[in-house]
Amino acid sequence: LKEHFGEEFVILSKTEALEMNLFGLPGQSVSYQADDRLGDLIMFPKNEWIVRQLAGDDSGPGSIGVHGGLSRDEMLIPFLAMRF
User: What does pTM read for this prediction?
Assistant: First the structure.
């Protein structure tokens, strides 16, 4: 992956990403549920690249997710939380 996509993506192992505290709160371990959902490799798009997740059926593929990267616009997405 690094040979073919290293110019366009930051590629880390799950262990590297967790050791860098890229997920969750600083100084706290990620939950079992979050750890279970992380893949063996994590790819962050650089610059203007995105990763698009597609799902298909008889009517054809449809977009079910767009995963942004490390561009300024993607890094400055506001976060809103509400306690119910």
Answer: 0.62
